[in-house]
Design goal:
Elements (H helix, E strand, L loop, with lengths): L1 H41 L4 H28 L7 E4 L1 H10 L1 H7 L1 E7 L5 E4 L1 H17 L5 E11 L2 E8 L6 H4 L19 H11 L3 E7 L3 E9 L15
Parallel strand pairs: 2-4
Antiparallel strand pairs: 1-3, 4-5, 5-7, 6-7
The structure holds adenosine-5'-diphosphate.
Subcellular location: Membrane
Protein name: histidine kinase
Amino acid sequence: INAHLAQTEKLASIGQLAAGFAHEINNPLGVISCYADLIDKQVKGNAQLKEDVGVITKHASLCTHVVESLLNFARVNKPEFLMHDLHGILDDILSILRHRMEKVGVTAQTRYLATGVELPLDPEKIRQLFMNLVINAIQAMDKGGELTVSTRLVDASHLEVTVADTGVGISPSDRTRIFEPFFTTKAKGVGTGLGLSVSYGIVRQHGGTIDVESTPGEGTCFMVTLPLRAKETKNKPPTDRG
Ligand code: ADP
């Protein structure tokens, strides 16, 4: 498991590397576009040259698009922690997605055992995290199935949320790659391959862990563990402020 986590971490950091790279590419790319525009304005009489410059402009803007999506993906804005309950967030997600689940014959149930618990979290990020997991679960059950969202206290200082589905499952070889940025098995336009890598980052920002168990053909269960109290370490959630 440790080796797996180390690899996961390495893969998630590829996204940040890519973002640094994107920054470096952005400036020269801007210069290329700018000069192509300048040439374009001077070649009015020469149709062939105008067309050639058009190709440069078009491909430079394709690059710009790729760079922008990389930057978007890696935008790691700082989380803002407050003491907050989880069940409200989870219920919201399920109700937002209810219609979508009905359409594909997915039924949802909740098993909330950790009731009345507040923990230090960034509600928006946690919403995004579980939204990603639940949408993945629904997409894994396009012929219907059952979604179960559960919470329980693991010990005195950790709460576990599980998102379980009865969908297609994940093959052992895919399982080593699912947290990798841009890894997707979904059709273009359906999947970006960023959901789990972003989710992994959010869990880490909260000082938690994320893991997965899956049986192909039977289903998948994502387990997220979050600390109940903030640790007083750098990059960890701050202690509650009064
Ligand atoms: P995306 O959903 O855009 O493909 P993710 O990072 O969220 O990107 O997921 C990566 C891949 O992990 C998916 O393409 C899919 O193969 C697999 N996956 C994630 N969640 C599940 C699930 N609940 N059941 C089956 N496969 C899953």
